[in-house]
Predict the structure.
Amino acid sequence: MVSSWLLFLGSLLPFFTGSKAAVFTLQNRCKENIWPGTLSGAGHPLLINGGLQLKPNERTNVVAPTGWSGRFWARSGCSFDQSGKQGNCTTGDCGGLLQCGGIGGTPPASLAEFTLDSPEDFYDVSLVDGFNMPISVVPSGGSGNCSAVKCSSNLNLQCPEKLQVRVNDGGETVACKSACLAFDQPQFCCTGAYNNPQICKPSNYSEVFKKACPTAYSYPYDDGTSIFTCKGANYSIIFC
Ligand SMILES: *[C@@H]1O[C@H](CO)[C@@H](O)[C@H](O)[C@H]1NC(C)=O
Ligand SMILES: *[C@@H]1O[C@H](CO)[C@@H](O)[C@H](O)[C@H]1NC(C)=O
Ligand SMILES: *[C@@H]1O[C@H](CO)[C@@H](O)[C@H](O)[C@H]1NC(C)=O
Ligand SMILES: *[C@@H]1O[C@H](CO)[C@@H](O)[C@H](O)[C@H]1NC(C)=O
């Protein structure tokens, strides 16, 4: 699911041009290997062929062209064959591929979403489809508000039972579904009769996410406290 404002901004993008490319620095601060993935908005180039591996404490720079929009997430518990074309991940999997190649991550996965140069950069952390690992977005060198968005709590440790994703019965919780993903009901997904910010309100489930990560999207109409802007910045995307 894409936040409503991203769809709106995406439609305005062709009208703005002119600033420089942005550098995203993906950083693994987890204790284990992770496999960041990226998916671009329609009409925007796919970066790093959609994914790569980062060992603990590794980082990598990814250059995005002016006006780019898209998202980043990270996969956990992956194993791939030599070709990187056959494998699987415990969370965030994209068709079993090391390089996602335009395939999105299977939810639940914590997302960092961007729409650059519109005319400012808009960014957010979204848990609308759930959480798989802590994720933060930290701008550098830009002008404007440029707040860091930190979702550094490990929600897997506080996940309500009905939302937990476990590797096997009694195993550790590896991800936490949103109520929309778990129950597929309009009042949680803000669909059907609830497709309206006046009607679709936070639930006791989304409040668990909001409490752990107050500046991340906890349900689709959580725009008020979850959208951030900055101009001309580079961005670190920090996992764990
Ligand atoms: C995951 O991939 C590994 C390595 O390719 C394979 O051995 C294993 O059977 C796969 N597991 C599942 C559940 O597909
Ligand atoms: C972004 O990073 C690039 C490459 O390191 C650098 O040349 C540029 O000045 C940076 N931009 C800002 C706004 O810090
Ligand atoms: C910057 O954003 C934060 C978070 O939304 C907000 O609390 C603060 O008032 C904003 N500052 C300015 C100068 O707009
Ligand atoms: C949310 O409310 C429902 C209905 O009252 C209840 O069944 C459920 O246990 C509550 N969940 C949490 C996480 O509080």
